[in-house]
């Protein structure tokens, strides 16, 4: 039996990804368009915000999936999602020490 | 001019990435390093941003079609995220040649196996009309989770090491060994790639190995290419997607073998 067919769950996760991807796209596009017209570091900083939003999008997707699994009392996959989230957070801590 | 080139490069990588279930990093990392003169570690980190973009854009489309197995994806993400984060941290300390050799061998084996099955008309032909029609996905139960988790750990490690999404490993493993339909395997791989790449990209970013001025135009192109590719996917015969995937696998394997040979000669 397939594990598919949860339209509401799929739609919620898809919405997170869509909002994240579109936000990043428009922020980065704004930075690219601003670059020839605006001097200084503003365009670069706008692009940086876009990149950071992109890095955060999968993390937010995991948080939402984790919440939805626990909400549905699907404990097994809730804990699995939480495990993925912890790994992502640890990656941030590991990277910090290498600058 | 360079910005425009990066946007075009991102568009092409995003298009192919969405059609084949790979992240596009397999193309971007070597091109950034070879043609834009970016140091390999920064090329890897920068291409990871584009890989996340491909995944976010295309997997949202796959999710709306209900072709993504979220539970399978989350389970395997546990291994890919761990492999990616650890390898991104350890990159530079490992012997890349051995891993690249293993990766090339695995890709060649998987590509040949998929081609052989496709020619026999076994599962590939049955899945030729896909995606938009939910009912076209046959009932299935993923098998061999331990093998899937082990392969995902390797895929994640290679993502952290080479700046790829790991799709060329995840798709064949889910399709061939876990008996997941190809369309579901491709969609689930796309879904997982974002988290896999993010796990290592976070480490690369904190280390200063992501070039924002390169990543932004790439990501803009990748976003448009990915959305287009994800929308084209249902209208394309599965065999074409399979051949694209196999073509990318051969390309990547050849690239790795050449890289190894250059190191030895």
Structural commentary:
Chain A has 99 residues and is mainly alpha-helical. Chain A has one domain. Chain A has three helices and no strands. Chain A has helices at residues 7-34, 42-71, 75-96. In chain A, helix 1 runs antiparallel to helix 2 (42-71) and helix 2 (42-71) runs antiparallel to helix 3. With 265 residues, chain B is mainly α. In chain B, 64% of the residues are buried. The N and C termini of chain B lie far apart (36 Å). Chain B has helices at 2-20, 25-35, 40-64, 70-90, 96-120, 123-126, 145-162, 167-177, 182-207, 212-232, 238-264. Chain B contains eleven helices and no strands. Chain B has one domain (2-264). Mean pLDDT of chain B is 79; it is low at 123-135. Chain B is globular. In chain B, helix 3 packs antiparallel against helix 9 (182-207), helix 5 (96-120) packs across helix 8 (167-177) and helix 8 packs antiparallel against helix 9 (182-207). Chain B is 78% helix and 0% strand.
Summarize the helix and strand pattern of chain B as letters. HHHHHHHHHHH
What class, by secondary structure content of chain B?
mainly alpha
Give me the number of helical elements of chain B.
11
Distance between the termini of chain A: 48 Å
Mean pLDDT of chain A: 85
Shape of chain A: elongated
Helix content of chain B: over 70%
Helix content of chain A: over 70%
In terms of DSSP E residues, the strand content of chain A is under 5%
The oligomeric state of the chains shown is: heterodimer
Binned strand content of chain B? under 5%
Secondary-structure element series of chain A: HHH
**Rg result of chain A:** 17 Å
Total separate domains of chain A: 1
The total beta strand count of chain A reads 0
- How many β-strands of chain B, per DSSP? 0
Secondary-structure-based class of chain A equals: mainly alpha
Roughly how many Å apart are the termini of chain B?
36 Å
